[in-house]
Amino acid sequence: MRFGKIALVAVLLAGAPFAAQAATYQVDSGLTSSVYGFGALESIGLAFVGTTGAVPGALGPNSISYGINSRNAVDPYLPTTFVYTPGTLAPFAGSIEHDGAIFLTDAATQTAAITIGNFTIGFDAARVGTASPDANGFFVKDNIDTGLVLFDIANGIIEALEGSLVLVGDFVVSPELSAFLNDAGLVDTEVTGLDMGLGMTVANSSIIPVPAAVWLFGSALGLLVWVRRRA
To answer: By the 8 A CB rule, do 118 and 68 touch?
Structure first.
């Protein structure tokens, strides 16, 4: 009987992970605020017209913010999928999505209309140190008119906690936006890395339930201890 009990426990353990997993948190809600430097838009040939979906931001009287989409958002809105590990941030994955738009025009003639918005905050390791030596791989992407990564995030400060996530950094012009501006005749020089302002995401998060397999491992381990004591 002792062999049979141990064999049963071995079968249970075979289907469960051997080590406990670190807690993983998912971003549920929050706000991303941004404030642009004086004359920043004009320096890249653009002028501010207005916004939709924006509320006053947390970075001063001239800042605006957009709400973070829920994980259950449906078309035409993108769902937030960002998950992370408290303390270290990594491992992390996914994106933080927003709803809202900024209306721009060309600063010279004010005849062209450009709408950017429904912003994605994501990460691409290949972007580290590209637009700026201090670019950390996070970026801001437009999902309306251009479909481009607009800004790389540089000089970042990240606070990954249980229940909240804070990302702060400078918005610097991406290589993609620089090429777009030059092609449109809005600028006539390379502007990649130009500091446009500051962004800050403050998000609420919740723990992702431990997979059933981990609970199975815990139960099986307890059973193994019990069998040994009974044997």
So the answer is: no
pTM exceeds 0.90: no
Q: Where are the alpha helices (H) located in 16-103, listed in sequence order? A: 40-43
How far apart are the C-alpha atoms of 102 and 196, rounded to whole Å?
15
pLDDT confidence bin for 22, thresholds 50/70/90: confident
Q: Is the pLDDT of residue 55 over 60?
A: yes
> Nearest to residue 76, comparing CAs of 99, 54, 94, 57?
99
Degrees to nearest 5, angle at CA 54 with 172 and 206: 85
For every residue of 96-151, DSSP letters joined together read EEB--EEEEEETTTS--EEEEES-EEEE-GGGTTSSSTTEEEEEEE--SSS-SEEE
Q: β-pairing, 101-106 with 46-52?
A: antiparallel
What is the three-class DSSP state of 12? Answer: helix
Identify the three-state secondary structure at position 38: coil
Tokens of 38: 């004086």
